[in-house]
Amino acid sequence: MSYPDQHRFAMQLAWLSRAWRAELDRRLAGLGLSQARWLVLMHLNRFPEMPTQRELAKSVGVEGPTLARLLDGLEAQGLVKRIGVPEDRRAKKIALEDKARPLIEKIETISREVRQDSFAGISEDDLKRCQQVHAHILSNLEKR
């Protein structure tokens, strides 16, 4: 692959990521959540047990203070709660409140619709090949 093709591919990947998030934001706007907040809810929902604040920050890919501010907002909305860890006074586990469950279901539904619309007309073989290419690029990046 030539340099201009590599450059074009990298730019398309960045544009795709931005466009995907923008479309999700547009469709989720009516739920009263910023992208950062709904992302925290989605990550939190995928943990089999309540994560610590540190584990959740790592999963979301944000620094601790950033997550703390997001959790403050989600807590004020009644969507999450922090629970002290008896064996470590500084640690907090994060739990979803019941009020968050229907909201997460709406987020999941909207996310599924975005995926269906985005992958329309793309064959399974093309999708698998694209995933292989992305995995190879990610592996190359992680070697560094």
UniProtKB/TrEMBL annotation:
Return the Gene3D superfamilies for the record: Winged helix-like DNA-binding domain superfamily/Winged helix DNA-binding domain (1.10.10.10)
SMART domains from the entry?
A: HTH_MARR
Residues in domain HTH marR-type? 6-144
Instruction: Spell out the PROSITE patterns in the cross-references.
Output: HTH_MARR_2 (PS50995)
User: A single GO molecular function, which one?
Assistant: DNA-binding transcription factor activity
So which domain of life are we looking at?
Bacteria
Q: Which InterPro entries match?
A: HTH_MarR-typ, MarR/SlyA-like, WH-like_DNA-bd_sf, WH_DNA-bd_sf
A GO biological process of this protein is: response to stress
Keyword terms: DNA-binding, Transcription, Transcription regulation
PANTHER family associated with the record: TRANSCRIPTIONAL REGULATOR SLYA, TRANSCRIPTIONAL REGULATOR, MARR FAMILY
Q: What is this protein called?
A: MarR family transcriptional regulator
